[in-house]
Amino acid sequence: MKRTIVVLFSLVATLALMITESPAQQQWPEEITFGVIPVASSREMSDSFGNLSNYLQKELGIKVKLQVAGD
To answer: Could you tell me the residue ranges of all domains in the chain?
Structure first.
């Protein structure tokens, strides 16, 4: 549970930095990869984080690829 909270906090902090206006926004990527380290089976992690990656894709307007590390 703590690892999930740390991962989510890191994601929110990263997104907050990405949202701030800067010249780098002109070079916005076409796709980002969101990687997670499994604390459960890969299937469970995909199910858990699938909705988050879909939400990020909708809000950011770019493709978000979910990558779950091997068990």
So the answer is: 2-68
Q: How far apart are CA 61 and CA 46, in angstroms?
A: 21
Give the DSSP letter of residue 67: E
DSSP-derived secondary structure letter, 6? H
As a whole number, mean pLDDT of residues 61-71 equals: 84
Are residues 68 and 45 in contact, defined by beta-carbon separation less than 8 angstroms?
A: yes
Alpha-helical regions (H) of 1-71: 2-19, 42-60
Task: Say if residues 50 and 17 touch (Cβ distance below 8 Å).
Answer: no
| Phi and psi, residue 16, nearest 5° | -60, -40
Q: Of the candidates 64, 68, 9, which has an alpha carbon nearest to the alpha carbon of residue 1?
A: 9
Q: How confident is the model at residue 50 (pLDDT cuts 50, 70, 90)?
A: confident
Provide the whole-model pTM.
Answer: 0.55
